[in-house]
Design goal:
This protein has about 400 residues and is α+β, with helices and mostly antiparallel strands. The chain has 2 domains: about 5-160, BirA Bifunctional Protein, domain 2, CATH 3.30.930; about 190-400, no CATH class. The protein is about 45% helix and about 15% strand. The chain has helices at about 15-20, 55-65, 95-105, 150-160, 190-195, 200-215, 220-230, 260-265, 270-280, 285-300, 305-320, 325-335, 335-350, 350-360, 380-400; strands at about 5-10, 30, 80-85, 110-120, 125-135, 230-235, 245-250, 255-260. The strands form 2 sheets. A 5-stranded antiparallel beta sheet has the order 1-3-5-4-2, with helices on both faces. A 3-stranded antiparallel beta sheet has the order 6-7-8. Strand 7 and strand 8 form a beta hairpin. Helix 6 packs across helix 7 (about 220-230) and helix 6 (about 200-215) packs across helix 11. The longest helix is centred in the last third of the chain and has 22 residues, at about 380-400. It holds the Pfam family Relaxase. It comes from Bifidobacterium merycicum. This is Relaxase/mobilization nuclease. InterPro entries: Endonuclease_MobA/VirD2.
Length: about 400
């Protein structure tokens, strides 16, 4: 569901112009009621030459006398709205432009509007910055704040019409059921403290298994099946609950159970169903199945560190919609702060790398989880893990017969 965040401006538009266009990070521009120079005629999604829209907005305001203080307070010179689509929709720039301009035309038809598109957030999700000048070009009156709920309802309606996920408006006079959190991933204090001390957290364990299943699953049935293989049961919450959600529990410890939205919005029923219906799943491939099998094997042998590394690598690949090793390398180079680490995990874990190769059509590789030393992990811990892997590999070899060449597929 698209989120609309309003910000008021009380200065000239030069500052917001420089902020939105610096370092060449703008993906595209759209305009309403401004003389922007189009490079070529187009009924939809035109391309524009460089244009100083801040200068024209400031001139319009000055000519209308709308730069002067109002009732002793500084003039509100513009409104800046950030329209962010649901990350689960995997919306592309063209559809975001269609959604944004439909919303702009409905709500600000008589105002000068400049729209700048970015994808400079953590997940590289395209979003729109909508700058609305404070002067109505028809009657020269100042912009009065539209009803915030009306703006949000408008965005949800257009999202629904485009087949994107959206929020249903509550009946008049009733409040929408509250969400547990608005964060994509929500880590509670107890979980964070256990992680800081290097201790086991069953909540983090469930989240990691879900992270892998959600990236690989093609639909709800597939998601439930993959989680079952990894030892997690999925059930609907109580019919009396305010919000419909799923409850996850460990199969071998059913009292350890938690609802999806308590883990973060990305793990809740509504967000997951929207994700599956979008069809844009980077890891829903044969390679992804091999990765899920590796995670299931890690669960069976108690390899919580293996599971953690796989989940983090999957999150890196999935959030950037990476579909090949070449795309993975480019993403790592473009985002060295977190990309390098994610890239290292994918390279270190043969299954994570093979998931990306499989997405490009290569056959799924061996299902064995490979241990490497990552970051500052203590050497003693690595030696113990390597010994455990060698024992597991030997047992697997005795059961299945000799494996293929090193790094090659099992025959």
């Amino acid at each position: 569901m698209p989120i609309v965040k309003p910000i008021s401006g009380h200065t000239g538009c030069g500052g917001v112009f420089r902020y939105l266009t610096k370092d060449g990070r703008a993906l595209a521009f759209d305009y309403l009621n401004l003389p922007a120079p189009a490079l070529e005629p187009a009924e939809e999604l035109p391309e524009y030459a460089p244009y100083d829209w801040a200068r024209d907005m400031d001139a319009t305001r000055k000519d209308a006398g709308n730069d002067t203080p109002w009732k002793g307070k500084p003039a509100r010179t513009y409104k800046h709205y950030v329209l962010s689509p649901d990350p689960g929709d995997r919306i592309d720039l063209a559809d975001l432009r269609r959604l944004t301009m439909a919303w702009v035309r409905e709500n600000f038809a008589d105002f000068e509007v400049a729209v700048v598109y970015h994808d400079d957030n953590a997940g590289r999700i395209p979003h729109a910055h909508v700058v609305v000048n404070n002067t109505n070009v028809s009657n020269l009156r100042r912009l009065q704040d539209p009803d915030p709920r009306a703006l949000k309802r408008s965005a949800q309606r257009f999202a629904k019409e485009m087949g994107l996920s959206y929020l249903k408006d509550a009946p008049k006079g009733t409040a929408a059921p509250p969400r547990r959190t608005l964060q994509r991933t929500y880590v509670r204090r107890a979980e964070a403290e256990l992680s800081r001390r290097g201790l086991y957290s069953w909540v983090a364990d469930i989240r990691m298994r879900i992270e892998i299943a959600r990236a690989v699953a093609r639909d709800e049935a597939d998601f439930r099946s993959l989680l079952s293989e990894m030892g997690v049961a999925v059930a609907d919450n109580s019919p009396r609950a305010q919000r419909r959600d799923w409850v996850y529990s460990l199969a071998d410890a059913p009292t350890r159970r938690i609802s999806g939205e308590s883990l973060g919005l990305s793990y809740g029923r509504d967000r997951l169903l929207a994700r599956f219906s979008s069809g844009a799943l980077a890891l829903a491939t044969d390679g992804g199945r091999a990765l899920a099998a590796a995670a299931a094997e890690a669960v069976r042998v108690g390899g919580i560190d293996e599971l953690r590394d796989l989940a983090e690598a999957v999150s890196f690949v999935d959030s950037r919609r990476i579909r090949s090793m070449e795309e993975l390398r480019r993403a790592a180079e473009a985002s060295p702060a977190d990309g390098g680490e994610g890239f290292g995990r994918c390279r270190a874990h043969g299954n994570a790398s093979r998931a990306n190769a499989g997405a490009a059509g290569q056959e799924a590789r061996r299902r064995q989880v490979t241990r490497v030393q990552i970051g500052s992990r203590r050497k003693a811990r690595c030696r113990a893990a390597e010994a455990e892997e060698r024992a597991t590999a030997a047992a697997e070899a005795r059961r299945k017969g000799p494996p293929g060449p090193q790094g090659g597929p099992m025959r």
